[in-house]
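Let us practice reading a record.
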Amino acid sequence: MNQVIIFTDGSCDTKSKRGGWCYLLRCQNISKAQSGFEANTTNNRMELGAAVCALNALTRPCEVTLTTDSSYLKNAFTEGWLQTWQRNGWRTASRAPVKNQDLWRELLTLNTTHDITWTWTKGHANSPENNFVDKLALSARKSGAGRVLDHTQVTELLAGT
């Protein structure tokens, strides 16, 4: 099974509701990154969406270490929140409907396809990869357009981060 390292981030301006997301994939000595834009969204949708897009980019089941700066995303898998929400009919502890159920359901499916270790890093700290995906998610949000970057482009941009 291929071992893949993924870094994800989402960005959203709460006033305009413009959002951007980005992921960085690393497998063996190859890197790939992609970012995207969404109008009328939330930060949590962008964080979840980045993970969905990254995992959907994998062409076969993989052993994945996915690093996010969203404790909401990470804890949903590592702290049992998703199981509780499902058991409660997709309701939170306060009985409110869980937001972004479409993305959570897709992530659950992807989580069974791949062997995923969910990890967290502090945003805007000393992780070059997290800073890289943050920068590209912000750029997508501001420009209204995403990008696909190949190994050479990723390497060049990471060197400048």
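A brief commentary: The longest strand covers residues 2-12.
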